[in-house]
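Need a sequence for this fold. Nothing fancy.
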């Protein structure tokens, strides 16, 4: 079971921006579809190995998921943050989801 490590969460004011990072050992993150989840419930964004992106309706136009050029990291750029965006964000592979294997996540707080 390969576990990814999330970072970048912090407290911001509404309207602000954050960039979350998802790192895996070696280049593992480059070879799988990666999902960002909020509070272990809502799939916020995903990106395939072919760079096809999907977003929850609630974040479309504000969040951008991308892969670093070196292939060892996935980002979630979060713009125009709203209080309802707050939560614990996890990045997951399809295997992590099947196994219900959640890491520590990274916490995002958004004040009005």
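Here you go.
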């Amino acid at each position: 079971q390969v576990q990814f490590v999330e970072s970048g969460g912090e407290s911001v004011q509404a309207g602000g921006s954050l960039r979350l990072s998802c790192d895996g050992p070696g280049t593992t993150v480059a070879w799988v579809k990666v999902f960002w989840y909020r509070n272990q419930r809502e799939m916020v964004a995903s990106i395939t190995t072919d760079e096809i992106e999907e977003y929850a309706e609630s974040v479309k136009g504000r969040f951008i998921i991308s892969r670093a050029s070196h292939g060892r990291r996935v980002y979630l750029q979060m713009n125009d943050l709203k209080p309802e965006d707050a939560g614990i964000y996890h990045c997951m592979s399809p295997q992590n989801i099947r196994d219900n294997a959640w890491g520590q996540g990274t916490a995002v707080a958004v004040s009005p």
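For context: The first helix runs from residue 94 to 98.
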